[in-house]
Structure formats: structure tokens, C-alpha cells
Amino acid sequence: MQAGAFSVYDNALNLRNRLYDMAPSKIEPVDVKGTTFYRVRLGPLNTVPEADILLERVIATGQNGAKVVVECADGALQSSVSGC
């Protein structure tokens, strides 16, 4: 799950720290058109219902842009399980 993405590392760190108790979390840097963004990711999660519950909890903290992201076996990212 991606809880948020920030161009400032400290903002990503603050969010990760706020959500730390909900699930394993990490910050992943990614380059988008020459700008580094820091994605706050939670998981891995084992089931769709588990992901749905966590998504609701994260949104309840005010992270309205949070979304479930599925990482396929080949490393590709999808927005749904059926995309793998």
C-alpha cells in the first residue's frame, strides 16, 4: 500500500512514523522526470481483505490519496491484483 509520496524526505519520514504501528513500513525513493519522490509504503499484506482494512485505517488518518499497490512477481507495479 502506498500511503503517500513526497518530494521532501522529512515529510515522508513523518508520515512513516505516524503509520509505523499499523503495518511494516518503508520509504522508497523514486525518480520521476528528474525529481526524487519518497513513497511511504506499508506491507507486504497477504490478502485483499487485509489490504482493504489497512487502507480504511490509513485514510482515516487523513491520507485520502492512499491506495493499494500490487507488486507482481516480476517486480512490476499494478493498481489491482488482476493486473499481474
From TrEMBL:
Recorded hits in Gene3D superfamilies, A to Z, give: Sporulation related repeat
Question: Which SUPFAM superfamilies has this protein been placed in?
Answer: Sporulation related repeat
* Domain of life the protein comes from: Bacteria
Which ranges carry the SPOR domain?
A: 1-71
The record ties this protein, via InterPro entries, to: SPOR-like_dom, SPOR-like_sf
Which named protein is this?
SPOR domain-containing protein
Origin organism is: Thalassospira xiamenensis
